[in-house]
Write the structure tokens for this entry.
Amino acid sequence: MPADPPPLTPDCASCAGLCCVALPFAKSADFAASKPAGTPCTHLAADFRCTIHERLRPSGWSGCTVFDCHGAGQHLTQHTFGGRDWRAHPELRAPMFRAFPVLLHLHELLRYLTEAAERAPRSLYEETEAARARVAALTAYGPDELPAVDIAAERARANPVLTRVSEAIRAALPGPRTDHRGADLFAAHLRGADLRAANLRGAHLIGADLRGADLRGADVTGADFRGADLRGADVRGVLFLLPSQLRAARFSASEDGSRPEPGEA
């Protein structure tokens, strides 16, 4: 096990284009064509770069611009497989493509638990850090061990910890703390809504109008913000907001021209 947890942000230059080959996608509003798992995207170059990277959205590949591997790609390439890739070593195709989806889920879970450990009240820190350390240890598994990890079981183990941290943090915040867990808020009119400390875990907010909404301290774990209008919304201190969620939404720049980072207070 490495002394430090793996980086949780992508470094595409250190990856073997795994998201472009190991994962499947279906033709839709997000992808211009279908592709089965294990088949390289037709736009993947020999050096693992995307040949249409600068024009992905206008070319119908917005799903690629939203995707985030949370650092799993470079970790699998550089650490799990020691810097080897599936093109130079064709015998690694199957084991790499089996391991990548598992490590992808582990890195996402580790990202949630890392944030939870950083923000947990003192009374919950020990169990939260233990949960984080457990998942961090799983990311250090080898090529033969990773595919055997039960992701559903690991999520079920971590979810109560994440829920307790979320509830403790939100209970100490001002706001109505509305419960919208798993709610169908497709194209909902929520402009200017007071959603401070709300529970939006798993909420379907596709195309929702959230302009000027106050989302400070809300828990947005797994919320679907595709096409949601977040222009002018206040997302400071939002819990468990992933970069992919922000990229999937419409969001205006702040006054200084910067884009808020997940969890920024």
